[in-house]
């Protein structure tokens, strides 16, 4: 719209028409403006309303979207759980639907569960129903199938049992000797099972049985391990061939095991089945075990003999002042090897054609006990008690304590004799001082004081000059030792009269001797007090848990799991292996002060740890053989610096001399089967004994009935034995 200038219009035209027109124009403009404002306010209200509606719908949409996200997450989680359950179900089915052999093993395990928990038919049916409902099949075979499998695996008919009388703790008791009737048949069964399971590992086409044995609890046991088994060191891999009650010495082994062991040399081949095919494998025998068992096999008299080594004839002195010490012993000396010829010459009859495998852990454990464990304990005792400063080992310290106890007993006895003599001397002084007249039963002495002496001893003595008889007290003899010496002496005795002693001189003599006895008694009491104090100091360190340093050492060993238990005494193989790792060596050495002992002990422990690590090698190459010999040489030098005064034990000689020679010949130390599996076999025998022992408990409770809680019921002697 065009705009006009009113002032110009008013001045140039008639006033009223123009004014009317102008006013109309203004009114019209205002009307248009008001209409426009009213429209704009209505639109704004609608816009605000729409915005609020959009905002409400947006919030609703956000809530719906959040709900959707939550639902989607829950659905995803449930899908994952369902998928996981499906995977677990499939995994369970895969595990349970294995080979027939696995099912048979499950059957065997189930049969043991039935015998252990007394599962009845009703429970078996319920379990079968449960498995069929949940997984679609049952892992439990029928009792008929289990009985058939157990009959197939039963080898009890291969053993014979004999009741013999033996001596246990100086008491004759009856025990059972168990022997295998046919070791060849037993090995054939083992080889057949391994072959059909695809687990028979022949070495150069040979089966390698390893004869081993040990004594645990009352029984000595002989077992056979198979190096052709995947787990030759497991106790479950050992075949039991013989056991008897008593020491595992040569006489007992010849008596109880001789018949079984004599058949082993005749087993040259083993026939076994692979499917329906009968195969034959050559047998290469080995033997291992602790030194006691190996010595007994060859009729050797053991580690305390003049020639204690089982590998050679070496005159090794292990005890006494003339013992062979590490500092002076020549480990390079060559001695004649033990052969079948000189064994038969020096010992008893028998054939010994098996290859002897040096025991691994047994040798290392023996060296560790003598040159590490004993030295650490002795050092802590020295730190807690200065009296042990010159004592090399714990046995030496115990010997010092024993001598202190003996010295204490001698001093107490001497003091008791002196106090008796002093009491008698005081009686003599009183009797001589109050002397009046000789009694009726007087002796030939001019001053008989027998009535004044409170003693029932009426010993007499005869003068060799005047031939008169006197009471020993009337001759001022107050010591029982002097009386005993006079009776056993050929020296002449002269009375006071013949020596012309007066009454006053006799009293003076009694006073002089009494004073000497009192002074001697005081000296001995002072010495006894010192000896008793030293004995108590030694006992405080050696008895119980020991002194503060020993307790600290035991605490550290217990913390790292290397403290010997009450059952085993000294640390076992796994504990020694852990202790000899560099990390734990430093932890243990923190107990000791920084001195030469600590530095030398560190060298010995590190090198012994390297030797123990090498003992676990299956094979040695040429470089490893040289490295092992170098380790042995450095170990000997470290021992010479650490404990040169210690005696050489047979295990150390065997480790230094014969183990490297064995490795040079056979490229291995212990091979796949060691003596440690036999140690674990004791536990299996003990479990069997517990099962049998339970029958005795049940019989006893059944026999005494309701009186089982009566404290007056005594256990019969039959049960005590």
UniProtKB/TrEMBL annotation:
It comes from the Eukaryota. Keywords: Membrane, Transmembrane, Transmembrane helix. The chain crosses the membrane at residues 6-27. This is PHD-type domain-containing protein. It holds the Pfam family DUF1280. It comes from Caenorhabditis angaria. InterPro entries: DUF1280, Znf_FYVE_PHD.
């Amino acid at each position: 719209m065009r705009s006009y200038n009113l002032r110009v219009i008013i001045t140039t035209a008639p006033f009223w028409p123009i004014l009317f027109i102008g006013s109309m124009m203004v009114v019209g403009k205002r009307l248009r403006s008001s209409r426009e404002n009213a429209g704009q306010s209505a639109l704004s209200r609608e816009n605000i309303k729409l915005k609020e509606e959009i905002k409400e719908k947006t919030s609703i949409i956000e809530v719906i979207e959040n709900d959707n996200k939550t639902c989607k997450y829950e659905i995803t989680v449930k899908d994952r759980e369902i998928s996981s359950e499906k995977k677990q179900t499939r995994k369970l089915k895969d595990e349970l639907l294995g080979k027939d052999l696995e099912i048979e093993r499950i059957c065997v395990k189930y049969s043991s569960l039935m015998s252990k928990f007394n599962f009845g038919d009703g429970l078996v049916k319920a379990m079968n129903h449960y498995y069929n409902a949940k997984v679609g099949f049952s892992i439990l075979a029928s009792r008929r199938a289990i009985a058939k499998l157990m009959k197939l695996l039963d080898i009890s008919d291969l053993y014979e049992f004999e009741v013999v009388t033996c001596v246990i703790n100086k008491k004759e008791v009856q025990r059972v000797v168990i022997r295998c009737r046919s070791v060849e048949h037993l090995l054939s069964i083992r080889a057949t099972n391994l072959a059909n399971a695809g687990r028979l590992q022949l070495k150069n086409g040979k089966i390698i049985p390893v004869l081993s044995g040990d004594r645990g609890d009352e029984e000595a046991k002989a077992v056979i391990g198979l190096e052709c088994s995947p787990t030759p060191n497991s106790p479950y891999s050992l075949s039991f061939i013989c056991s008897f009650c008593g020491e595992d010495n040569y006489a007992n082994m010849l008596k109880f095991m001789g018949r079984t062991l004599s058949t082993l040399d005749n087993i040259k081949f083993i026939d076994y089945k692979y499917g329906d095919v009968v195969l034959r494998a050559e047998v290469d025998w080995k033997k291992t075990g602790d030194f006691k068992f190996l010595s007994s096999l060859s009729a050797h008299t053991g580690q305390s003999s003049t020639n204690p080594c089982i590998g050679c004839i070496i005159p090794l002195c292990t005890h006494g002042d003339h013992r062979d010490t590490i500092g002076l012993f020549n480990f390079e000396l060559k001695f004649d090897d033990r052969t079948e010829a000189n064994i038969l010459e020096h010992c008893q009859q028998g054939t010994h054609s098996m290859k002897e495998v040096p025991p691994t852990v047994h040798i290392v454990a023996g060296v560790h006990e003598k040159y590490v464990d004993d030295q650490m304990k002795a050092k802590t005792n020295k730190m807690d008690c200065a009296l042990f400063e010159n004592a090399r080992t714990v046995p030496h310290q115990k010997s010092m304590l024993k001598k202190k106890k003996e010295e204490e007993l001698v001093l107490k006895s001497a003091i008791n004799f002196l106090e008796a003599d002093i009491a008698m001397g005081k009686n003599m002084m009183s009797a001589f001082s109050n002397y009046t007249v000789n009694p009726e039963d007087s002796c030939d002495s001019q001053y008989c004081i027998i009535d004044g002496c409170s003693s029932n001893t009426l010993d007499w003595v005869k003068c060799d000059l005047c031939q008169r008889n006197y009471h020993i007290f009337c001759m001022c003899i107050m010591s029982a030792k002097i009386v005993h010496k006079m009776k056993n002496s050929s020296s002449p005795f002269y009375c006071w009269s013949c020596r012309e002693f007066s009454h006053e001189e006799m009293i003076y003599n009694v006073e002089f001797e009494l004073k000497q006895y009192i002074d001697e008694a005081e000296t001995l009491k002072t010495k006894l007090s010192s000896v008793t104090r030293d004995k108590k100091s030694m006992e405080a360190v050696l008895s119980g848990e020991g002194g503060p340093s020993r307790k600290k050492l035991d605490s550290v060993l217990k913390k790292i799991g290397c403290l010997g238990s009450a059952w085993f005494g000294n640390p076992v193989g796994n504990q020694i292996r852990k202790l000899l790792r560099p990390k734990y060596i430093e932890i243990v050495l923190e107990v000791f002060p920084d001195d030469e002992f600590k530095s030398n002990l560190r060298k010995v422990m590190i090198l012994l740890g390297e030797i123990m690590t090498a003992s676990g090698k299956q094979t040695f190459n040429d470089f490893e053989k040289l490295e092992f010999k170098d380790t042995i040489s450095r170990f000997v030098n470290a021992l010479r610096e650490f404990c040169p005064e210690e005696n050489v034990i047979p295990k150390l000689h065997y480790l230094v001399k014969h183990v490297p020679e064995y490795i040079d010949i056979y490229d291995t130390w212990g091979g796949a089967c060691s003596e440690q599996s036999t140690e674990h076999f004791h536990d299996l025998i003990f479990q069997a004994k517990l099962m049998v022992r339970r029958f005795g408990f049940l019989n006893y409770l059944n026999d005494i009935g309701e009186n089982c809680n009566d404290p007056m019921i005594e256990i019969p002697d039959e049960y005590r034995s």
